[in-house]
């Protein structure tokens, strides 16, 4: 049996706008294996949230799927009915958002919300409550039994995020998607959550798709990295390979801007001079060319393909093609 859990193939997604179609995702191809932690990294606006909302089909009304496939356990998700997608979201794929208040209902106790999540289960109320307490314990909430009766505002931000993770894991999903789950937290809490996620991944044996604009966190947590720029994958590969041997100038700049020291880092976004191109009006050639200090003449009119350079390491840059850069 294949180890591939999620497979994204040539995915193209546009947003219809008054200015014309905004090309939010172009030709996205990567996969996530069972039990693996894959990080998606890129600057703000590069399409990370569009990608995960497309996987979950929780998209804005002006979203248009133009091409490609999203396969989960071998099944193409795009043709699935909304009812089947809802079942999948509740059981096989879970999500943790950046802001845990998006997950928690402020007027219900945490215990009530964790019971509600188990509505499909035939277990008794007492059993469901015991399971909820056990999950809170697993994510490191002290005295979980008593804390079930508290409301979301009675927990700190870091605890709320851990509770969101506990809720996401209640269904024992095969895939946990986390969209910048630590961005709203301070550095110490961020480290705690990352360490906890690593433990939980082992314990629950789920795959994690972890979205961040922060390379340090990705380096700490992930097995593989997908680097996105302006709606496209520009590099992907094993985490060590990407950090020690990056093959795209954009990845190199991201690493330069972010030394990856999760414990000492400053809370600033990486800054690379210049701006992401207008997705409604993409330039010809390589999308990174205007900001690249190594651009070649061919970059102006030819789009570099995402090419396998070594086993599992791909990059989309003409500098890696000897016949062009020679
Ligand atoms: N419903 C929409 N209609 C039109 N444009 C949209 C819509 N949603 C997002 N966009 C645009 O699509 C592009 C990708 O946005 P997306 O939210 O996926 O980026 P992101 O990588 O998640 O950014 P961030 O790091 O800020 O969360 C951006 O240019 C954004 O402005
Ligand atoms: Mg986002």
Describe the structure.
Helix content is 31%, strand content 25%. It contains eleven helices and twelve strands. It has helices at residues 48-56, 82-91, 110-117, 125-138, 144-147, 157-169, 187-204, 215-221, 239-244, 249-257, 322-325; strands at residues 4-17, 20-33, 37-41, 63-72, 75-76, 93-96, 175-179, 207-212, 224-229, 232-238, 307-310, 313-315. The strands form two sheets. Strands 6-7-8-3-9-10-12-11 form an eight-stranded mixed β-sheet, with helices on both faces. Strands 2-1-4-5 form a four-stranded antiparallel β-sheet, covered by helices on one side. The radius of gyration is 21 Å and the shape is globular. The model has no long low-confidence stretch (mean pLDDT 89). Bound molecules: adenosine-5'-triphosphate and magnesium ion. Adenosine-5'-triphosphate (ATP) binds at residues 15, 17, 22, 24, 42, 44-50, 60, 62, 213, 279. Magnesium ion (MG) binds next to helix 1.
Count of all domains: 1
Q: Which fold name fills CATH's third level, the topology?
A: Rossmann fold
How are the strands of the biggest sheet laid out side by side? 6-7-8-3-9-10-12-11
Number of DSSP-assigned strands: 12
Roughly what is the average pLDDT, rounded to an integer?
89
Order of helices and strands: EEEHEEHEHHHHEHEHEEHHEEH
List the topology elements.
Elements lengths: L3 E14 L2 E14 L3 E5 L6 H9 L6 E10 L2 E2 L5 H10 L1 E4 L13 H8 L7 H14 L5 H4 L9 H13 L5 E5 L7 H18 L2 E6 L2 H7 L2 E6 L2 E7 H6 L4 H9 L49 E4 L2 E3 L6 H4 L1
Parallel strand pairs: 3-8, 3-9, 6-7, 7-8
Antiparallel strand pairs: 1-2, 1-4, 4-5, 9-10, 10-12, 11-12
Bound molecules: adenosine-5'-triphosphate and magnesium ion.
The site of magnesium ion (MG) has 2 residues, from α1.
